[in-house]
Every structure is written in structure tokens, then in C-alpha cells.
């Protein structure tokens, strides 16, 4: 190094120390703070002027290392100015300083000595633009990092280390570079989501997962939790094939951890989050399938010659769509779960999906206990109730429907009893939901019993004892319905009460009950 440059670096170090002292000087009032800010800006300009003088005496070809270092010093100083504006919440001024600092690095972004600083500036600029709700510009700047080849021998440093005389402490540079790069990708995915580009956001999350997997210090449990969250993005879009793949990838990762008997502090929480992901998957697939079936039933009522095509008709095909190769992990073995990924069409598929989801419900309740997580525990029981309701919809036999709804009622009644005794405050918070669910179950059971009685009317001759027994049964059903009605927030209107009271007379006369027939219970 030339003696002239050595003296220049010493001078810059002294000037930076002066700048640091000014910034750390106590400011007791507003007037003192304003004076310190003016002195700080003047010192910034002095250092920048001195760096510019040295740059003019160098060429990037002949003295590349010194030219790069002085360029990075200039950029880092402007970057620090932008951070001062950001701390004062002057977002517009901070944005301009960050843009100015990036302009200094044009053409050398991939240099090992420059790359880390460039990523830090982009990270701050993306945050500032998001605060200003300029997501379009944030997208442009953040996307530029995707085309940069990150070097292996990247150098990480602070501005103070850069100006100090002596070597830079380059420990953990690879880890720091990885973290800042992943942070930028996360921000880009969030910006895509704010712009309504959900597909691009999900793809960016996949890139993040692959980058995390390639990193030597990757935490498999944290990776599995991230994977579970990505599955939910596809589930919202009703892409069940992709969602199943990501949930299966998370399951495979956690199975490997448990297989090695690794003692990880977050393994229980990761398993619980994965369980909730599979529960949501099963309920969502059941809901989509049921809506399509109901739509087809409605069309048959009016005998439409040409069924209307819904906006989601693409997912209702007889075969599962193929998994996109772009979202498959290249360096990880994924065992895809044997569970449907297309709308349910047969009772066999419904039972298989029910059993799969019920297994994960049991796993979720291992972690979300009534003592530690009472509200989530209640939600698990309500999810089980919803699962029973979906299964009953696909059961073709009335007796099977009755058994399923009876199990549903037992689960809800048990939960209600336990909450009253163990968690009375929790019971008060969820009592309305529980009563609503219980009322719905009683109505479903009433409907099934009425259908059974309607079937009996097809018999030509009935004994008086049979008629009497049916009258007693319908009276018991009517009494249960009245008891349920007492817990509802509104009373049964007088007209409906009169109609219910006349049911016994209708049955005793042997007339068919209008509106009842065979079919699936909704």
C-alpha cells in the first residue's frame, strides 16, 4: 500500500472517531440536539469529501482493492446517514439516502467485499418503501438480489470496523450473509402478497425453504414449521396437491428428527403446528367437496340441462392434478401422505380422510392440553365435531348417520361438562358456540328420526301398538327440541310452536309428513 493511502486511511479513521463522538454526545434539550445534528451533518460531508478526493486519484483497474474499499467507505457513510433519518422516522429522506448509497455500488454488487453491505442496504430500503406503502418500487429493488451470484468468500463488517485501522473481524460472515439474504427474500414474499401476487409469494417461500435446507446450520424443526406455514398458503388457494406435499415434507423432516432421537426443545410445538395444518387440510377438503355436492343437488332440483360451471370447477376432476416440479425439493426425501388431494366423491374416500384427520386431532391434543392451552383444546373438540358432521353428510345409511351424530353429541356434551367443572371461565367464553353446536346436533338427530318414521308409513297395515310407539317417540323428540330451544338466544315463535304441537295429530291420522324424504342430511 502506498504511503499516501496509509496516511489517508489514518486520517479517515480519526475523522470517523470524531463523527462517533459527536453522535454519542449527550443532548439534554431540543436546541442541543439540533446543534449536534448540524455538527453531525458537517462531519459527514467532511469525510465524504476526503474520500472523494482519494477516489479521484485512483483507478479501479490499477488499484482495485483500495478503490473498492474507498467506494465501500463512501457507500457505508451514506447508508449511516439514511439510518439516522430512519431512526427519526423521516422516511422520505431515509429513502433518498439509501438510493444514493446503492447508486455508489452499481456494477460491483457481486464483489465479496461489497455483497454483504449491498444486501443490508436493500433490506433497509425495502423496509422504508413498505412503510411508505410503495410496494411496487420495493418489489423492483428486492428482485434485483435474485440475479446476484453470492460469492463464497463474502466479507461482513460494520461501518466502524471498515474505518478502523487493522483487519476486519470476518467471523460468522457466511451465517450473517445467509440471514440477511433470507430476510430480503422474506420481505420480497411479503411484498408480493401485498400486491396480490399470491402465486409469486408462495414460490418465493419455496425458494427460502430450499436455501434454508442447503445451509449447513439448518434447523430441521424450524424448517418443518416454516414448511407447515407454506402449506397453508396453498390451502387458501384450494391447491390440495401442493398443500399435501408441503405438509408431507414437514412430516418427513420431523420423523427424521424423532428417528435420530434428537432432543430438540421445539419438537413438541412443531408437531402440534403440523397437526393443526393437517386438521385444517382435512376440514378444508371436506368443505370444498360438500359445497360441490350441494351445488349438484341444487341443479338436479331444477333439472338444468347444462349444469353451471363454478369458478372452482377446475379442481373438481376425477383424477388428482400432477404436482408442479418447480415446488418439489431437490435435496430432500419427501414421503407423500396417502390421503386424498381431490374432492371427495365416495364414502370410502370420506372415511379415509376422516380417519387421517382424526389421527392428527389426537396428536394435537397431546400438546394443546386443557390445562396449558384451554382455548385451542376447545377448538380441537369443535374441529372434531365438524369432522363428524362432514362424515355424516357422506354416510348413505340413516343408521350410520345417526351413530356419527350421536358420537358428535357425546363429544360436545363431555366437553361442556368438563369445562364447567375445570375451566368455568373458559366455559363462559365458549358457551354460546357449544350450545349452538349442541342445538345443531339435536336438530340433525331429530331429522334422522323423522326420516325413519316416514319410512315406516310405507307399511300397509300397522298395529295400534306400533302407532302408539311412534307417537311416543315423536313426543320425546319434540320435548328434546323444546329443551334445546331454551338455551338458544331467541324463543320459538308461536306459529312454529303450534306446528310442532300438531305433529302427534298428523302421525296419528296416518298422513305423510310434508317435506320429508330420503336423502343426505346437510
Walk me through this protein's architecture.
The protein has 522 residues and is mostly helical. Helices cover 71% and strands 0% of the residues. The protein contains 19 helices and no strands. It has helices at 3-24, 30-56, 64-87, 91-104, 115-131, 135-143, 159-163, 173-194, 198-214, 220-236, 240-259, 267-302, 347-367, 374-394, 398-422, 424-456, 464-487, 494-501, 503-509. Helix 3 runs antiparallel to helix 4 (91-104), helix 10 (220-236) packs antiparallel against helix 11 and helix 10 (220-236) runs parallel beside helix 12. Mean pLDDT is 82; it is low at 307-317 and 489-522.
Compute the gyration radius: what is it? 34 Å
Percent of residues in helical segments? over 70%
Count, helices? 19
Beta-strand percentage? Answer: under 5%
N to C succession of SSEs: HHHHHHHHHHHHHHHHHHH
Number of strands: 0
Query: How would a crystallographer describe the biggest sheet?
Result: none
Terminal residue distance = 83 Å
Mean pLDDT across the residues is 82
Low-confidence stretches: 307-317, 489-522
Query: What structural class is derived from the secondary structure elements?
Result: mainly alpha
Shape category = elongated
In short:
The protein is built from 19 helices and no strands.
Label this structure with key terms.
disordered C terminus, 19 helices, 522 residues, mainly alpha
List the helices and strands and how they pair.
Elements: H1 3-24, H2 30-56, H3 64-87, H4 91-104, H5 115-131, H6 135-143, H7 159-163, H8 173-194, H9 198-214, H10 220-236, H11 240-259, H12 267-302, H13 347-367, H14 374-394, H15 398-422, H16 424-456, H17 464-487, H18 494-501, H19 503-509
Helix pairs in contact: 1-2, 2-3, 3-4, 3-5, 4-5, 5-6, 5-8, 6-8, 8-9, 9-10, 10-11, 10-12, 11-12, 12-13, 12-14, 13-14, 14-15, 14-16, 15-16, 16-17, 17-19
Amino acid at each position: 500500500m502506498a504511503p499516501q493511502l496509509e496516511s489517508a486511511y489514518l486520517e479517515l479513521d480519526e475523522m470517523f472517531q470524531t463523527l462517533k463522538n459527536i453522535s454519542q454526545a449527550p443532548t439534554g434539550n431540543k436546541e442541543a440536539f439540533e446543534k449536534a445534528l448540524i455538527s453531525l451533518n458537517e462531519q459527514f460531508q467532511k469525510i465524504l469529501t476526503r474520500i472523494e478526493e482519494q477516489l479521484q486519484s485512483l483507478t479501479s483497474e490499477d488499484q482495485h482493492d483500495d478503490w473498492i474499499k474507498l467506494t465501500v467507505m463512501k457507500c457505508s457513510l451514506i447508508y449511516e446517514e439514511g439510518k439516522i433519518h430512519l431512526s427519526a422516522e423521516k422516511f422520505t429522506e431515509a429513502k433518498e439516502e439509501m438510493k444514493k448509497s446503492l447508486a455508489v455500488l452499481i456494477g460491483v454488487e457481486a464483489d465479496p467485499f461489497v455483497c454483504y453491505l449491498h444486501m443490508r442496504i436493500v433490506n433497509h430500503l425495502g423496509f422504508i418503501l413498505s412503510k411508505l406503502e410503495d410496494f411496487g418500487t420495493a418489489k423492483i429493488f428486492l428482485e434485483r438480489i435474485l440475479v446476484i451470484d453470492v460469492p463464497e468468500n463474502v466479507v461482513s463488517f460494520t461501518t466502524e470496523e471498515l474505518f478502523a485501522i487493522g483487519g476486519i473481524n470476518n467471523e460468522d460472515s457466511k451465517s450473517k450473509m445467509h440471514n440477511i439474504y433470507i430476510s430480503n427474500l422474506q420481505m420480497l414474499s411479503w411484498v408480493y402478497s401485498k400486491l396480490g401476487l399470491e402465486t409469486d409469494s408462495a414460490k418465493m417461500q419455496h425458494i427460502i425453504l430450499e436455501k434454508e435446507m442447503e445451509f449447513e446450520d439448518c434447523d430441521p424443526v424450524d424448517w418443518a414449521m416454516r414448511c407447515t406455514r407454506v402449506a397453508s398458503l396453498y390451502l387458501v388457494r384450494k391447491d390440495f396437491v401442493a398443500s399435501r406435499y408441503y405438509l408431507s415434507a414437514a412430516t418427513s423432516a420431523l420423523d427424521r428428527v424423532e428417528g435420530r432421537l434428537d432432543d430438540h426443545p421445539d419438537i413438541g410445538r412443531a408437531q402440534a403446528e403440523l397437526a393443526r395444518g393437517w386438521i385444517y387440510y382435512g376440514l378444508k377438503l371436506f368443505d370444498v367437496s360438500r359445497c360441490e355436492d350441494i351445488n349438484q343437488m341444487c341443479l338436479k332440483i331444477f333439472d338444468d340441462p347444462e349444469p353451471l360451471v363454478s369458478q372452482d370447477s377446475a379442481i373438481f376432476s376425477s383424477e388428482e392434478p400432477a404436482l408442479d416440479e418447480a415446488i418439489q425439493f431437490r435435496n430432500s426425501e419427501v414421503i407423500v401422505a396417502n390421503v386424498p388431494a381431490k374432492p371427495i366423491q365416495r364414502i370410502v374416500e370420506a372415511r379415509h380422510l376422516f380417519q387421517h384427520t382424526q389421527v392428527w386431532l389426537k396428536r394435537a391434543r397431546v400438546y394443546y392440553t386443557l390445562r396449558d392451552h384451554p382455548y385451542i383444546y376447545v377448538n380441537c373438540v369443535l374441529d372434531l365435531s365438524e369432522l363428524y358432521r362432514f362424515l355424516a353428510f357422506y354416510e348413505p345409511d340413516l343408521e350410520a348417520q345417526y351413530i356419527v351424530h350421536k358420537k358428535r353429541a357425546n363429544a360436545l356434551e363431555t366437553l361442556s361438562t368438563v369445562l364447567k367443572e375445570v375451566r368455568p371461565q373458559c366455559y363462559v367464553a365458549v358457551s354460546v358456540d357449544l350450545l349452538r353446536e349442541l342445538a345443531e346436533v339435536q336438530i340433525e338427530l331429530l331429522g334422522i328420526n323423522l326420516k325413519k318414521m316416514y319410512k315406516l308409513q310405507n307399511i300397509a297395515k300397522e298395529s295400534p301398538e306400533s302407532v302408539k310407539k311412534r307417537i311416543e317417540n315423536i313426543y320425546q323428540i319434540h320435548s328434546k327440541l323444546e329443551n334445546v330451544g331454551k338455551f338458544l338466544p331467541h324463543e320459538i315463535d308461536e306459529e312454529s310452536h303450534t306446528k310442532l304441537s300438531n305433529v302427534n295429530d298428523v302421525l296419528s291420522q296416518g298422513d305423510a309428513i310434508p317435506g320429508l324424504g330420503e336423502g343426505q342430511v346437510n
